[in-house]
Amino acid sequence: MAAKQTRFFRDSISHLTTVATLSVLVWLWLTLLLVLPLGAQAGGVVTNCTEAARCAAMAGLSANNGGPTLTMALLADSPAINAGDTAAAPPTDQRGFPRPAGLAADIGAFEYASVMPTLAVSLPGANGLRILGSGNPGQSCRLLSSLDLSNWVPIATNQFGSEGTILFNVSCAPAGACGFYRLVMP
User: Of the candidates 131, 96, 132, 140, which has an alpha carbon nearest to the alpha carbon of residue 116?
Assistant: First the structure.
């Protein structure tokens, strides 16, 4: 009788170990399925997408692409690129980058290939400044000036060239304060 009980006990432990191992494997599989959708790889490359809306837009995984919240970056062949209504779209995407970066605004919170405008100021001579602006090619911009950082006055309106740059030459009094400058998109 003792041998029968020992065998039953040993078989029960073996069965429980198998069930526990299978439970852990199923838990791991479900966890990976929820965390990393099927077909997605590290870096947000979509190979066999299972999320219909994200796949149709050809967007990457939700990630920190700049700005206050996570966004899904559009992939290069996304049908959402240049497919929005520019007149109805906000002037910036969710990250604060200017719209449109291309021919029209993109659909969604992320503007593909949008560049945050920047200024580089140099002093080529005693009577002026050379201000080089960088931004989205073809996009209109305005150069504003202020003496006190509170009251801004537009001093030039133009468009970024095909290389995404624009040059402003600003005159100012010799040895005087030229002021502060910023670049804004209309």
Answer: 96
